[in-house]
Design brief:
Keywords: GTP-binding, Nucleotide-binding, Nucleus. Residues 1-33, 102-115 have a biased composition (Basic residues). Residues 57-81 have a biased composition (Basic and acidic residues). Residues 3-76 form the Guanine nucleotide-binding protein-like 3 N-terminal domain. This is Guanine nucleotide binding protein nucleolar 3. The chain is 70% helix and 0% strand. It has 4 helices and no strands. The protein has a domain at 45-80. The protein has helices at residues 3-27, 45-81, 84-108, 112-126. It is an all-alpha fold.
Length: 146
């Protein structure tokens, strides 16, 4: 889409919104009236109030039931995602992953800088291409201090 067309569309939208706002101002703002409730002189006032209260309670119970249904559905989906066969394989992988953690814990007791240098050397030796990335926000910080 060309810039001319895009700007033209934006201009039309602005004009349309301006017209809508202007018409809304002309119509004026009417304050919504409050419900006065049931007058005291009305017959069966108590019955009407009880019915209204019952409706309110039923709506609340319905919302609560829907909420529980959604939670049960989510739990059921979670259980389906983790099937029994997966749980056994997860236990096996956890046991296998414990061994490297123990080795890392022993290595972590060494000097962290020395450990970092060793890891860096391993990565550089194993790589085919090495890229050096400079921070464009601070190029002087990435240069040699000489």
């Amino acid at each position: 889409m060309t810039c001319h067309k895009r700007y033209k569309i934006q201009k039309k939208v602005r004009e349309h919104h301006r017209k809508l706002r202007k018409e809304a101002k002309k119509r004026g703002h009417k304050k919504p009236r409050k419900d006065p409730g049931v007058p005291n002189s009305a017959p069966f006032k108590e019955a009407l109030l009880r019915e209204a209260e019952l409706r309110k309670q039923q709506l609340e119970e319905l919302k609560q039931q829907q909420k529980l249904d959604r939670q049960k559905e989510q739990e059921r989906k979670r259980k389906l995602e983790v099937s029994p066969g997966d749980e056994q394989s997860n236990v096996e992988t956890r046991e296998e992953s414990d061994e490297p953690k123990r080795k890392k814990a022993k290595a972590g007791k060494q000097n962290p800088k020395k450990l970092h240098c060793q890891e860096l050397k391993k990565v550089i030796e194993a790589s085919d291409i090495v890229l050096e990335v400079l921070d464009a926000r601070d190029p002087l910080g990435c240069r040699c201090p000489q």
